[in-house]
Each structure stands twice: as structure tokens, then as C-alpha cells.
Write a structure and sequence with these properties.
about 190 residues, alpha+beta, about 30% strand, globular, seven-stranded antiparallel beta sheet
Length: about 190
């Protein structure tokens, strides 16, 4: 839910507490909000921002989808993301088979709805009850998609180029049973 004005009570009433606040400014980090006072003080200088319902014990997963200019598409294997350093992407994600299938189909559906070619990264949460919730859809390959460089038949960057020049999209099949990429921050972070 995008908040653009100072009256946050309706959003809080609809979503309940705790919430996750996602400021829409560069360099701002998500914040867990447990009380109304925290939300009021946290939101004073952070407009606009998104509020999300907090999902306890959630597993974060990512599916990268490439849509070709003629409407064809490919989805990369669902990968599991860790939120604590070192940030890691593990493919395939360790989820029940049916949950993985639902997550990939959800990502494909979200990308089809744009009606536009390109590469999309769909970040989702899998709740403790195995419910798949879309957290965000970003245009372009997420940094976690680096596992495709050596781990997939056709990496995400080649498929992005293929989509742009109307070539057939390549296979996203994993070359190995399991693959990982680790995102190492620079010395400035």
C-alpha cells in the first residue's frame, strides 16, 4: 500500500501491526514497525513509502522472467534469498515442489500482465503456511541472478539481449543440481 499523505491510520487499520515500512527514497532500508508510535515517528520524513503486512517466518524467493518481443517467455529456476550477510541466492529454492510451481507461475503471470518485453525480477515471500506473496517486481535482472552466469544453459544477460533483438530465448535449465551466488559488499558498505 503506497502512502503519500500524512494520515496513515487507515492503512494501519487495514494491514494491522506489525508492518514493514519501505521508504521510496534511494538508500533507505525497510523498517519493522510494531507500534503506532514507531510508525508515526518513522514516517515523518519518509514520504512516499510503502507499507506491507509483516509475514512471520517467511522465506524470500526470487524468480527472474525474460519476456521476448514476440511474447515468448522463459522463467529461471526459483532461487532462495538470504537477508543476512553474506547475501546469498541458492537455486533451486528449498521449497515444496507445489509451492515452487505456484511461485514460478505467479511470477510469470505478473510479468505477462505488463504486456511488455524485457527482464523482470519477481521477489516473493513464502509464508509458514506455504502461501506465496509477491513482494516486488523490478525491471531488470536482480543481482542474485548472477547464479545464471555459470549455473544455467543460457544466462539471464544473454536472454535479455535475445529478447531485445527478437531472437529465440535460450534454455534456463540448471547445468548442475544446485547453484549459488554470493553478493559480497564493497569496502564502503
Amino acid at each position: 500500500m503506497c502512502i503519500r499523505d500524512r494520515d496513515i491510520r487507515p492503512a494501519m487499520a487495514q494491514l494491522g501491526l506489525p508492518l514493514v515500512m519501505l521508504p521510496q527514497t534511494a538508500g533507505s532500508l525497510p523498517r519493522l514497525i510494531s507500534t503506532e508510535a514507531q510508525l508515526t515517528s518513522s514516517s515523518s520524513n519518509a514520504y512516499p513509502f510503502l507499507l506491507e503486512q509483516y509475514v512471520a517466518s517467511a522465506q524470500m524467493v526470487l524468480c527472474v522472467v525474460v519476456v521476448g518481443s514476440e511474447g515468448s517467455l522463459v522463467a529461471y529456476p526459483l532461487c532462495e534469498l538470504t537477508e543476512t550477510p553474506p547475501h546469498t541466492a541458492l537455486a533451486p529454492a528449498r521449497v515444496a515442489g507445489s509451492v515452487g510451481h505456484v511461485a514460478i507461475e505467479t511470477a510469470i503471470g505478473a510479468c505477462k500482465s505488463f504486456g511488455s518485453p524485457g527482464t523482470f525480477s519477481v521477489r516473493m515471500l513464502v509464508s509458514a503456511e506455504n502461501e506465496v506473496l509477491v513482494q516486488s517486481v523490478e525491471h531488470g535482472a536482480h543481482a542474485a541472478a548472477m547464479f545464471t552466469l555459470k549455473g544455467c544453459v543460457t544466462d539471464v544477460y544473454e536472454n535479455t539481449l535475445r529478447a531485445m533483438v527478437a531472437l529465440p530465448l535460450g534454455s534456463t535449465e540448471l547445468l548442475v543440481p544446485h547453484c549459488a551466488s554470493v553478493m559480497v559488499p564493497s569496502g564502503d558498505e
